[in-house]
Each structure stands twice: as structure tokens, then as C-alpha cells.
Write a structure and sequence with these properties.
By secondary structure, the chain is mainly α. The chain contains 7 helices and 3 strands; from the N terminus they run H-E-H-H-E-E-H-H-H-H. The protein is globular and about 45 Å long.
């Protein structure tokens, strides 16, 4: 596996671990925790993460994204707008067929085990904080004031 693919796969898997979305800091923490890449080999490994996200997001500045919006290279999106530092894995909900109902079932199934773990790196907490709230924001019958609420 080449270096570009290695970083891209690590970012994708880290975002999946975070429930499909996360801040850059959460992505960095997850990559460190996963220990699949020897980070000591890089002077600024966090720049590698940012570069790969920006090059694979049509939400990035013009000229940085390598592809066309919606193509197979358009993997990431900005959850809270540009410069927010919150990124999501495009099509995560579609790929995993997670609806609000399935999300609630997941929470009920995993809560007893996950409640004793630290909140910051807890995959279930990240799932609730990011994915479930994003799904609620998509509901057409909720008013704009709910969509503007900051759940982070």
C-alpha cells in the first residue's frame, strides 16, 4: 500500500470509529489511538491528515480538491461549514444504512458497556453527538432554530 492510500484509509477508518464525523483534533486522537501508522517518521503528521482530507473534499478551496464534486474522490465534507474543523465521511449514513431508528437501537444495545468509558474517545458518544444529531437536522419538519443548535 502506498503512503497516500495508507493515510486516506486511516482517516476513513478513524472517522468511522468516530461515528462518521469528527473535529480535526478528534481525528488526530483517533489516528494516534489506532497506532496503524508510525507517526514518529513524520515531522508534521497532522499536516498529512489535513492534506488528504482537503484533497478529497469538494468543500475545500478551489484548486486543492483533486476531482469533481460527487465523484469517487469526493470522500469528505465540512459538517459545520468551511473553517469549522469538523469533517464528515461523505455517504457514511448511506453506506451503513443507519437511520434514526437504527441509531436509537444501536444506542440502547451499546449503552451499558460504553457508559463506563471516558466520554472524549467513546465511539458511542461520538455517534450520538455527531451522526444522530445530523440525522435529526435533516428532518424536514423541524424548524430552522433546531438546525442551528450546536450539539458539540
Amino acid at each position: 500500500m502506498d503512503v497516500k492510500t495508507m493515510w486516506l484509509n486511516e482517516i476513513i477508518e478513524s472517522l468511522k470509529d468516530l461515528g462518521g464525523t469528527g473535529t480535526l483534533e478528534e481525528i488526530y486522537d483517533q489516528i494516534e489511538k489506532r497506532r496503524n501508522i508510525n507517526l514518529d517518521k513524520y515531522t508534521d503528521w497532522k499536516a498529512q491528515v489535513r492534506r488528504n482530507i482537503y484533497q478529497h473534499s469538494s468543500d475545500s478551496k478551489e484548486g486543492v480538491f483533486r476531482g469533481k464534486p460527487g465523484d469517487r474522490n469526493d470522500l469528505f465534507y465540512t459538517v459545520k461549514g468551511k473553517r469549522s474543523g469538523v469533517w464528515g465521511l461523505r455517504n457514511y449514513m448511506i453506506e451503513n444504512d443507519v437511520s434514526i431508528r437504527k441509531g436509537i437501537v444501536k444506542i440502547m444495545d451499546e449503552y451499558l458497556v460504553e457508559k463506563s468509558k471516558p466520554l472524549k474517545a467513546n465511539p458511542l458518544a461520538n455517534f450520538v453527538r455527531h451522526q444522530i444529531t445530523n440525522e435529526f437536522k435533516k428532518l424536514p419538519f423541524l424548524n430552522e432554530s433546531f438546525a442551528k443548535l450546536d450539539f458539540y
